[in-house]
Amino acid sequence: MAKNEQVIRADDTVTFINVFDVEPSKQQELVNLLNEGADKVIRHRPGFISVSILASKDGSRVVNYAQWRSAEDIKATREDPAAQDYGKRSAELARATPHVYSVASVHR
Predict the structure, then answer these.
(1) The domain that contains 46 carries what CATH number?
(2) Rounded CA gap, 97 and 44, in Å?
(3) Taking every annotated instance into account, which residue ranges of this chain make up the domain ABM (predicted)?
């Protein structure tokens, strides 16, 4: 596996996916903000496993894909004031649609 390659886990982990609709002119700014939040706050939270930030080729969407040990870890992180600050800042750049998922299957 390559150094930066992540494997989607299909075990009892919990997946948080936040899809952002963004103006193409603001896509990179949003990606930078999400990367900063992941580096400074999210990856240090209890239960964190991984986060991947995806940018659509047409510039209209950004996807934040994160895996956690439990739904409670996601809830606690979303209630953390530092994480909330990044949420507010990202809401100023794009419209977000966050949901919690379980991985139904992975094909390799």
Answers:
(1) 3.30.70.100
(2) 23
(3) 14-104
- Contacts of residue 84, Cβ cutoff 8 Å, sequence gap at least 6: 78
Give the structural domain span for 59: 14-101
pTM: 0.88
CB 61 within 8 A of CB 20: yes
Number of domains in the chain: 1
10-residue averages of pLDDT along the chain (108 residues): 60 91 98 98 96 97 96 96 97 96 84
- CA-CA distance, 32 to 104, in Å (whole number)? 30
Residue 107 lies in a domain: no
Amino acid identity for residue 49 in this structure: I
Domain assignment present for 36: yes
Instruction: Please give the full DSSP string across the chain, using - where no structure is assigned.
Output: --TT------SS-EEEEEEEEE-GGGHHHHHHHHHHHHHHTGGGSTTEEEEEEEE-TTSSEEEEEEEES-HHHHHHHHHSHHHHHHHHHHHTTEEEEEEEE-------
